[in-house]
Design goal:
This protein is α/β, with parallel strands linked by helices. The protein is 47% helix and 15% strand. Strand 1, helix 1 and strand 2 form a beta-alpha-beta unit. It has a 5-stranded parallel β-sheet with strand order 2-1-3-5-4, sandwiched between helices. Helix 1 packs across helix 5 and helix 2 packs across helix 3. Bound molecules: D-ribose. The site of D-ribose has 8 residues, from helix 3.
Length: 142
């Protein structure tokens, strides 16, 4: 199960991501927001982060205007590794090396075509399980 969240700056891109998830039969839960009215991104970052640390969802996707604020907020929750990605290389490497559990993107930064490719890469790349990367993740947790 994929947890989705956004603020008003990410709402339109989230609709593109939802269309991709539906087309590919990937189950998701949308934690809001639900429109273009101005909202506070930390609230949606918290909801998605909590869904992951509680085990309700396995990964998350968060979108605000730049992807910066919402990733900063999500990374305050212990156990969350939110990665702001602007291309597929970053999405692939953050899964391989960081075992990122949240993908953050900027709705005002990446276009819908690229964003969907980034999501696809993020969701379909497994953590490398290499010792040095596991050690570094443990160090982050500590
Ligand atoms: C909202 O205007 C904007 O600040 C927000 O979407 C995000 O870009 C913050 O980092």
């Amino acid at each position: 199960m994929i947890a989705l969240g956004c603020d008003h700056g990410g709402y339109e891109l989230k609709q593109e991501v939802i269309a991709y998830l539906k087309e590919n039969d990937i189950p998701f839960k949308d934690y809001g927001c639900d429109g273009l009215q101005s909202v506070d991104y930390p609230e949606y970052a918290r909801k998605v982060a909590n869904a992951i640390v509680s085990g309700e969802c396995e990964k998350g996707i968060l979108i605000c205007g730049t992807g910066i604020g919402i990733s900063i907020a999500a990374n305050k929750v212990k156990g969350i590794r939110a990665a702001l990605c602007t291309d597929c290389y970053m999405a692939e490497l953050t899964r391989l090396h960081n075992d990122a559990n949240i993908l953050a993107m900027g709705g005002r930064v990446v276009g819908p075509g690229l964003a969907v490719k980034i999501v696809d890469t993020f969701l379909h790349t497994e953590f490398s399980n290499e010792e040095r990367h596991m050690r570094r993740i443990e160090m982050i947790e500590e």
